[in-house]
Amino acid sequence: MQHWAKTEPGTIDDLLLDARDAGHPEVSERLINTWTAKGLLDHPRPRPARPGSHKAEHPASQRRLLLVLLEQRRHDPQPKLHSLAQVPLRLWLRCDDWVPTHQAHKALLTWLGRGRRSQQVARDGALAPLTLLPHLHATAPVRSRLVRLVTRLSLASQLTPGEHSELLDAVGAVLSPDDNQAHAALPHVPAAPAIPPRVTVDGAVAHAETVILAVQHLLRGRPSERLLEQARAAHRASEAHRPPPRHRAFDETELLADLLKGPGPQGQIDGTGHQLLFGVGHLLRSEHDAL
Fold it and tell me: What b/e sequence results for 193-206 when a residue is b if at least 16 CB atoms lie within 10 Å of its CB, and e otherwise?
């Protein structure tokens, strides 16, 4: 495991050597460039010299990030880029010096994707609270109508008052007082966003609209670094109020250990994209309501 102890910056040649030493001789310069373009890795930093220039260098944290990504590939030889993009997002959310915000921006857009991928993200995120409910009185066509509506609104340019009313009606057709009584007895699901014991129609609509606004905003490519950093700060504040041991200071060595144990890194970071998406949407709703 001595390859994890890298503390010096390195050129792309050093990254290739790191990968080979860690048991990944198949890694090529083309793969590293592709991952850099998608935000899985950051661009190297130029080193001007006279005459000419030296090869640009990646910081030590990015050298270790490459190895985390490759470890995930070991468990899943054909991982999707949107799945791998959650690895740098997880590190950016939890640590200060691993991943810069501009890289996290690109990784978030890679995770969101386009077309069918972004539709799936919108549907999964906005309907998370409803999937925990038994829907005692909702027929399959009624539930399908809500799924289609949320997906369509997420891919629109903006949420109009008329679409808000349509969403309110669709959610109201699914939920009922009896559903809320059954929901109160359900166990907490850690991977899902926090949900109140009694889910009201207004509360479910607010959750759906939060994710819809975030998807719309990201698909337009508009998230500023300030917005993302505010979402990260809000996420850390919410983590700080959770029971021990999560409230204590987080050490990067511990984070690496968490990412590398068990079923593989992906098992440790699933849900990171939706956590950040919901954080962005919450901030956008707050700004909208303040107007």
Answer: bebeeebebeebbe
